[in-house]
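Pilot study result, target chain (131 residues):
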Amino acid sequence: MRLAAVILAGAVLTACGNGGDDVGEAGAGPGGAGGLPDGTYSCIYLSGGMLMHLGEVVISGDRYGGFSGGRRGAYSLGADGAVEFSDGFAGMPDGFEVSSSQWRAGPTPLLAISITSPSGNRIDLDCEPQG
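Predicted structure:
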């Protein structure tokens, strides 16, 4: 029985990736420079047991825009997968800030963005590439 549990756990880990080693391994971005892959990323979060759609982030070269459209500025991708956005996002309520963001490459790439309200409440967004 214990052997079956170990085999099952190994199969799940294999299917889900290699335990985080893919963090920061971006696809071909601007000019193949290792930025985020160009495209539209749909951003959702969990609220009261329901998935809520906040909007979309658009990556084009070394520029980004979102959540309600429009270019906002440049971004940078660190070797550790940390993403720095130069100018926040259009469409966020007043006082909300991006507190952290991380690129997670792998079989299911994901841009994870955490935003914080003025009262300190955190919302964790999962932004998945579309198409």
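One observation from the pilot: The longest strand covers residues 50-60. A full batch analysis is planned for the follow-on phase.
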